[in-house]
Design brief:
The chain is mainly alpha-helical. Helices cover 69% and strands 0% of the residues. The chain is elongated. The termini are far apart. It comes from Maribacter dokdonensis. This is VanZ like family protein. Keywords: Membrane, Transmembrane, Transmembrane helix.
């Protein structure tokens, strides 16, 4: 709800950063969505015992994050006057969600080696 509100709320009166880093907003989108997937999985994994169901759960979380990111960008374009939907933001969101999935897979889905 926090992300939705601030994605659609006008921030025209708020000062911007002193630093002008090109495409920094894409890095922020990427980071938020990768963290969303990781935290979503960590919050929900204790409810699922079987590894196969955890894998399916992870895919649902990624699908939700990607869909949510696209919907937010469309709503920014349609509902707001001083914000605009950016396809590159949606792409950064989606890539972040998939990277979050790969992080979870690396941390929790590896099979132990037989050394």
């Amino acid at each position: 709800m926090f992300v939705t509100f601030f994605s659609l709320f006008s921030l025209s009166g708020v000062g911007t950063s002193r630093f002008n880093i090109p495409h920094m907003d894409k890095a922020v989108h990427f980071t938020f969505y990768s963290v969303m997937v990781v935290l979503g999985y960590l919050a929900m994994r204790s409810k699922t015992v079987q590894q196969a169901k955890r894998s399916k759960l992870l895919w649902y979380i990624v699908l939700f994050a990607v869909t949510y990111g696209i919907i937010i960008e469309v709503l920014q374009h349609v509902l707001t006057t001083d914000r605009h939907g950016d396809p590159l933001d949606a792409l950064a969101n989606s890539i972040g969600a998939f990277v979050g999935m790969f992080v979870i897979r690396f941390l929790f889905f590896r099979t132990p080696s037989l050394k």
